[in-house]
Amino acid sequence: MEYKHQIKTLEQYNEAYKESIENPDSFWAQIAETFTWRKKWDSVLNWNFTEPKIEWFSGGKLNITENCIDRHLETMGNKPAIIWEPNNPDERTRVVTYSRLHKRVCQFAQVLKNNGVKKGDRVCIYMGMVPELAYAVLGCARIGAIHSVIFGGFSAQSIADRLVDAAAEYIVTCDGAYRGGKDIPLKDVIDDALIGNKTVKRVIVYTRTRTPVSMIKGRDVWWEDEMEYAETQVEKDNVVTMPATEMDAEDPLFILYTSGSTGKPKGVVHTCAGYMVWTYYTFINTFNYNQGDIHFCTADIGWITGHSYILYGPLSAGATSVLFEGIPTWPNAGRFWDIIEKYKINILYTAPTAIRSLMGFGLEPLEGKNLDSLKILGTVGEPINEEAWHWYDEHIGKKRCPIVDTWWQTETGGILITNLAGVTPAKPTYATLPMPGVDPVLVDENGQILEGGNVSGNLCIRSPWPSIIRTTWGDHERCRTTYFTTYPNLYFTGDGALRDENGFYRITGRVDDVLNVSGHRIGTAEVENAINMHAGVVESAVVAYPHDIKGQGIYAYVIFNGKHGDAEQTRKDINATVSRIIGAIARPDKIQFVPGLPKTRSGKIMRRILRKIAEGETSNLGDTTTLLDPGVVDEIAAGKI
Ligand code: WTA
Q: Looking at the domain that runs over 10-65+272-510, which CATH code has it been given?
């Protein structure tokens, strides 16, 4: 497969960029031409940001799995699509070729049909990182069911809320999942999530850990039984056929829940054609992917990075993508390096948190590891600090691999700002330049657009790119007010950024109440709600503080009037409550008990002050005269932990 639209030089980038902004319709039509369509689109782009209403390739008909799988079969049927590295390095690897992937996806699509799933139905997927997770996701896409993958670290309560919000009728899960030394009982969590649930009709359970699970008659079925039966339906005389459902370009492909500044996660909706075109285009260009390269994205498919750069982007490009079940530090901190050596990985795409955590183990885990196959390194999910960037460059890339710092969001579907590996210049801690098709602007608090270099402001995007969020599931108004009303006619990212004299962007972090802990997005309001569920908690306020490994840590100020146990015990109880309500990923790192919170006369918590104290600044807290009770600030500062 030739990548016709792969950018090879800086001049080509400049040309493509200019063309994409001046003539977006013809620019994207040319790229979309390279895909398999059942019917071509009527118009490339219709949009307004006021409703918002955004349609790419409208009138076009296609199925994304035909583009990610079927179209590669003739020339690349025997090429590995997915290489699976199990949690335990002693367990056997699985190599899934494109033709095997085709068969499994068809089989699972048939399983879904056999269980009553129809186009447009919502299927919640809660699995560990096994190849079957890929089959489940793509099986949904093949029949037009809308998948909603939930990260394995979320609690039963979080799943229950998402099931209700999406009115999901089907679940695909595993008995359990292996993650490092842990064995996580996923089906148990699903069972808890289903207590009181009225919509779910069927749960399909894949066996991974052989943990005993309850199987409820009429509701729960085994993956293996279902697949065996489906095989007889989709395979005749060694030929696999399972027609893909014809989808409208703008039919929803998936929902992915993410945190915002309110207490309730929102279901970000992406649609078929635009998402496909964008993940493909950004994949081949960001990583300068060449046929035969082995691509290793270490994210979990439960997050957008896994959706776009383990599955859809690489597969649409006919690439080989590594799917890793485990964690970077188990059985030891050399695990990534072993995997790189074992599969001769060419592209490593990971999070700054992982880099910082591995840095902490020193150079010993790297000894004797052959990393010569690496050509390109990438980071995603949070700002990377200078020290981690240089460590990655020196010790992993040996100063010969370009590092791409890719900025994007669940809502953007794919990478928006990044350098292109080996093509456009890198600058440590800068995501640098926008992808063709992306028109970023910085605005000040009043929405005035800031021109020129050496300015910082809030990062917005002026016009739609193909995989921009279309709506928030079941609540379009929420999508409008969250992203499109802060600054009229602009998409507001929620991030702050600065632009240097060369036009390079550096993302400085969220300017709203969203935390980024180990690259995972968590809303402060969500954590506060969870803390407030604990008996004895009167009120709480959560802010971020700089954390050496996680990037940001969670600092909770809690007013507590309960009497049970000592402070340490109460902290543990609060953490247990948060784990129960959201999941362990949202547990506060620090909990300070306070007599009151700094509030304005109108009752608004002055988070600015709390943030400063959490960051270690206990004097110079700024103007506190507007506070109802300025004295409380001194007490809080004195009690800082
Ligand atoms: C942050 C992850 C700095 C940012 C793909 C964004 C980054 C949020 C970078 C989205 C980067 C992501 N540099 N910050 N390269 N990439 N972010 O939805 O704050 O999980 O708004 O998507 O992560 O997180 P999400």
A: 3.40.50.12780
